[in-house]
Specification:
mainly alpha, transport, membrane, Sec-independent protein translocase protein TatC
């Protein structure tokens, strides 16, 4: 009987030490993650400080750029009308309606602060991804590291492309449409700085996040939560959603302008299907090799 008790006691002590080791390992991982996140926050803070130094140029040329008729997008649209008159004169935007006002005592200070923080996040986003990759990498197998080795590069590239597309295409078209939209001549469009910045930030950063769709599909496909068959079956619904989004942000009802916005989104969805199919083929090949052995 005493031998049985000793055996049970030994097992209990061993299990307790195993649980303690697992807990310590878990907290060690949290500590490592904390260090990675702290470095990322410091990098974002540095970029935010640099943005404070150039705040006048950022506010005047970048943030309020889509509110000015000489913005790059509007000038390119007018040149298109010159070469292709059939597009219609409405596509050439020479005036942006509405006025931006400040209604709070700390409104302009908050605007400057929020803009600089937003710039710090945008510029520091690739470094944040790199720190996350450094945290996850040790837990991956060699084949998983190899297949995900370009994660930071492709995720950063898609984010930057999305930011540019959102800022130069979606944002100016939306600003022109929303500032000029009226339901009555008795109502004048005046917008607060918070409302304007919120719209510009949402459209720009939102598009950057949307362009991360292939990366998200890559991760979901790795986890077995997404398949190319499902995405192909949902293509018709995705098409309708993309066309609705494009119709909302375009300033004119002509189909040409709508397709300018919709085409990259279609390509993005098709690229996501290709990524999911690639992951599925690799999984099937790995399974076939496993059962062959």
């Amino acid at each position: 009987m005493s031998d049985i008790k000793k055996t049970l006691l030994t097992k209990a002590i061993g299990q307790k030490s195993t649980n303690l080791e697992a807990e310590m390992s878990f907290f060690d991982h949290l500590d490592v993650l904390r260090k990675h996140l702290i470095r990322a926050v410091i990098a974002i803070a540095v970029f935010t400080g640099i943005a404070f130094y150039f705040n006048e140029e950022i506010l005047d040329k970048i943030i309020f750029g889509p509110k000015k008729p000489d913005f790059w997008t509007y000038r390119m649209m007018c040149k298109l009308v010159e070469h292709f008159p059939s597009l219609g004169k409405d596509m050439c935007i020479t005036k942006i309606n509405g006025e931006i006002i400040n209604t709070e005592m700390a409104g302009q200070f908050n605007l400057q602060l929020n803009v600089c923080v937003m710039c710090g996040i945008v510029v520091g986003f690739p470094y944040l991804l790199w720190e996350i990759w450094r945290f996850v990498k040790p837990a991956l197998h060699d084949n998983e590291r190899k297949s995900a080795s370009g994660f930071v590069f492709f995720a950063s590239l898609l984010f930057v492309v999305g930011i540019f597309f959102g800022y130069f295409i979606v944002c100016p078209l939306s600003v022109n449409f929303l500032t000029g939209y009226t339901v009555s001549t008795e109502i004048k469009n005046t917008f607060t700085v918070d409302s304007y910045l919120s719209s510009v930030a949402t459209l720009t950063l939102g598009t950057g996040i949307i362009f991360e769709l292939p990366v998200i599909i890559f991760i979901l496909s790795k986890l077995g939560l997404m398949t190319p068959k499902l995405m192909r079956a949902s293509r018709r619904y995705a098409t309708v959603i993309i066309l609705i989004i494009a119709a909302i942000v375009t300033p004119t009802p002509d189909i040409m302008t709508m397709l300018i916005v919709a085409t990259p989104l279609f390509l993005l969805y098709e690229l996501s299907i290709f990524v999911s199919a690639y992951i599925e083929r690799k999984k099937k090949k790995a399974e076939a090799a496993f059962y062959a052995n």
